[in-house]
Structures are given as structure tokens and as C-alpha cells.
Write a structure and sequence with these properties.
heterodimer, A: mainly alpha, 7% strand, B: mainly alpha, 8 helices, 0% strand
Chain lengths: 246, 150
């Protein structure tokens, strides 16, 4: 009788210990999620504030760009000595020349719009909005009509889509810093998708030399104004335009 | 007292009962030609790190701990391994497209750099799987170099 009780007790303790050990990681993840949920509301306010701020700076910023021609200079510099370009190719996952396809393809628009949704959320440090953008991107890929693609183009599209979908899934479920890591590779995927099958939109390819632990990374933007998604809202104007399509 | 005895007996029966539920075991002797060390030039040291610290959950061959014979541990491990393999499988690295290989390599480096992998719940039991600063540096350097040459 006493033995049974003791045995049951030991079994129960062993059971609980093993279960807690194995579940520790899950629990930690949940905790993180909760933290981020509570942050979300403030994030949203924050993003609104930032918006106002950046709008205020907007005119200044553009005239600045035009007047000193800094970006243009930068671009010619890149092209002329070829050194910087080579570095970028080495440092980032070598993104293809975005101007490779001149086709005005409207089919890619939902994918690119969802990508911009993620990008703009990351500019304002909003994990929740980035996750929503990830969901939108998944939907856009599932609705994309591949029937028009043939042969090699179809094969390449499949590889790009497979990778992009994987990163979108992670953006949906990850904390902010991981979202940014996945966004970095996602940017190359979307860039290459545009190089492959084209877009009707006007798109800027921007470069941030500080992203990816100082290795540098590209991102795509719908606005000429620099809004950096990698470095957080405090450094959102860091970076330069490398290319423009349409 | 009677209640305690009853509950105890029920628990015991349940515990014994679930031991008979089979689980899928992640074990294989073959090193497939798609393994990362076949398709890339992985230095011996890095390969050893991968094998001791990653392969239990990220390959087709797990070296199971003794308590994996006991349920419900076996279930939990099975889920862990399934999830781990779907994220990254070193044995099937060659099956990924070139694009995904690059992206997986990047993730390996960033997970190790951020101390996310190997999981702390895993290293608590597998002390030998813990990575020293030097080992982490070794893996990250190798990954960075490999990505550059791709």
C-alpha cells in the first residue's frame, strides 16, 4: 500500500519533470508572443507617429535629394568603378539585375504589394503588421496564375516562389528581428521575380550597407524616399537608391 | 486514501498503456548523396559540430536517449524531430534548390550567431551539443565563406 503510493509519486514526478523539460522551449515561444502582443498596440501608435514625422520630412527629403544630387552621384560612382557593385554582389545574396525584364506585367502586382506591406511594417518596427503582410503575401502567391509561364521561366518561378513562401511563413510567426532576417532573403526573391517576369509598377531597388551584420542588403520600395526596413525606425533614412525600374 | 489509491492505479494503467503506442523512429544508416558534406567541402571540425549538435533533429538519423523508450517522451521528441527536419535536413541538403541552399546556409549562421540553436532545452540534456565560442565562430566563418563562393 505504502509502496504503491511512493511508486506512483515517483512516476508522477518523473513524468512532470520530463514533460516540463520538453515543453520548455514551447513555453518560451509563447511568452515571447505574449510580450509582442502587448507591444503591438504601442507599436501601432508608434507607427502612426512615425508616419506623421516622415510626412513632415518628406518634402525636405526630396528637395534634399534633388538639390545636392547625392544619390545620382552615388549611382554613377557605383557604375564607374564597378568596385562597389562587385562588393554588393558578394555581400548580399547576389540579386539579379532588376531591369532584366522590361515586360509590363500586372500579374505580379498583388505579390509586390504584399511585399511592400511587410516592408512598410518593418520600417515602423511593427511586428503585427509585418505578420499580416506575410499572410497577404502567402495569399498572393497562392492566387498567382502560373499557366502563362513555360519551360525555364516556370522552373525558376517555382524556385523563387518556394523560397519566398517559406520566408513569408516565418515572417508570419517570428519576432521582429527574425522577420527582418527573413525579409532580407525575401527581398532578393521578389527582386529576382521582377527580373524574371516583370512588373508594371515603378520600383526602386535600395541598398543598406549596415544590414545583415554589416554585409549589406537590398530592399525594394515603391517610393523614391528612403525608408529603411532593416535598421528600425530610428535609422529609417539610412541607405541609397541603386536602381529604378519603370 | 481510497481515492488516492484509485487515482494512482488509473494513472499507472494509463502510463503503462501508452507505452504500447508505437512511434516512428528517425533512424537510418545510409548517408545519402544529398548530404551537406557530400555537396559542399565541409571541414572535418565543422562536420563534427554539425553531427554532434544538429543531426539529432536535422537529419534522418537521431541518436536517441534512453528515455525515448518511455512515453510520452517519445511523442514529444517525434514532434520536435519532424519540425526540425522540415526546417532543415542536412541529409537532404542537395535536394534544395540553389536559392534555398543559400537561404538555409544564411539561417544556419544567423541562428547560431543569435544563440537560438541548438535549443537550450536540447543542450540541457546533451551537454556535448553545446557550442563553445570558438565552435560557433568556426561554423559561422565556414557558412559565410561558402555563401560567398556560391
Amino acid at each position: 500500500m505504502k509502496n504503491l503510493k511512493v511508486t506512483t509519486g515517483i512516476l508522477a514526478i518523473a513524468f512532470v519533470t520530463l514533460t516540463t523539460l520538453s515543453c520548455k522551449e514551447n513555453k518560451k515561444e509563447n511568452d515571447n508572443d505574449n510580450e509582442h502582443h502587448s507591444e503591438m498596440s504601442t507599436d501601432e501608435d508608434h507607427s502612426k507617429m512615425n508616419h506623421d514625422n516622415s510626412d513632415g520630412h518628406h518634402d525636405e527629403e526630396t528637395t534634399h535629394d534633388n538639390s545636392d544630387g547625392h544619390h545620382d552621384e552615388e549611382a554613377t560612382h557605383d557604375n564607374s568603378d564597378g568596385h562597389h557593385d562587385k562588393d554588393n554582389a558578394d555581400e548580399t545574396i547576389d540579386a539579379r539585375d532588376i531591369k532584366m525584364s522590361t515586360e509590363k506585367n500586372a500579374a505580379t502586382t498583388p505579390i509586390i504589394d504584399a511585399y511592400f506591406q511587410i516592408k512598410n511594417a518593418l520600417v515602423t518596427d511593427s511586428k503585427g503588421n509585418a505578420a499580416q503582410g506575410g499572410t497577404a503575401l502567402l495569399a498572393a502567391f497562392s492566387k498567382f496564375d502560373m499557366k502563362t509561364l513555360t519551360g525555364e521561366t516556370h522552373k525558376e518561378y517555382m524556385e523563387i516562389a518556394e523560397s519566398a513562401i517559406e520566408h513569408a511563413e516565418h515572417i508570419v510567426k517570428s519576432p521582429l528581428d527574425h522577420q527582418r532576417e527573413h525579409f532580407e532573403v525575401l527581398s532578393t526573391d521578389i527582386n529576382d521575380l521582377i527580373a524574371l517576369i516583370g512588373t508594371e509598377k515603378t520600383i526602386y531597388q535600395d541598398f543598406c550597407p549596415m544590414a545583415s551584420n554589416g554585409k549589406g542588403a537590398i530592399w525594394l520600395s515603391e517610393t523614391k524616399e528612403i525608408k529603411n526596413p532593416y535598421m528600425g525606425s530610428k535609422m529609417s533614412t539610412c541607405g541609397n537608391i541603386q536602381q529604378q525600374i519603370n | 486514501m481510497k481515492v488516492v489509491k484509485k487515482v494512482g492505479i488509473i494513472l499507472l494503467i494509463a502510463f503503462v498503456g501508452i507505452q504500447f503506442i508505437p512511434t516512428k523512429r528517425n533512424q537510418s544508416d545510409v548517408v545519402p548523396i544529398t548530404d551537406i558534406h557530400v555537396i559542399y567541402n565541409v571541414p572535418k571540425q565543422v562536420e563534427t559540430i554539425f553531427k554532434t549538435s544538429c543531426y539529432d533533429c536535422h537529419s534522418n538519423n537521431t541518436s536517441y536517449p534512453w528515455y525515448n523508450k518511455i512515453q510520452p517522451v517519445a511523442w514529444l521528441l517525434e514532434n520536435h524531430i519532424d519540425e526540425g527536419k522540415s526546417e532543415l535536413n542536412f541529409n537532404e541538403f542537395g535536394d534544395y534548390s540553389g536559392r534555398r541552399q543559400k537561404s538555409k546556409l544564411k539561417s544556419i549562421a544567423s541562428q547560431i550567431r543569435d544563440n537560438e540553436m541548438p535549443l537550450s532545452s536540447y543542450t540541457i540534456i546533451h551537454q556535448d551539443a553545446k557550442l563553445s565560442e570558438k565552435e560557433r565562430e568556426l561554423v559561422i566563418q565556414w557558412v559565410d565563406k561558402t555563401i560567398e563562393n556560391l
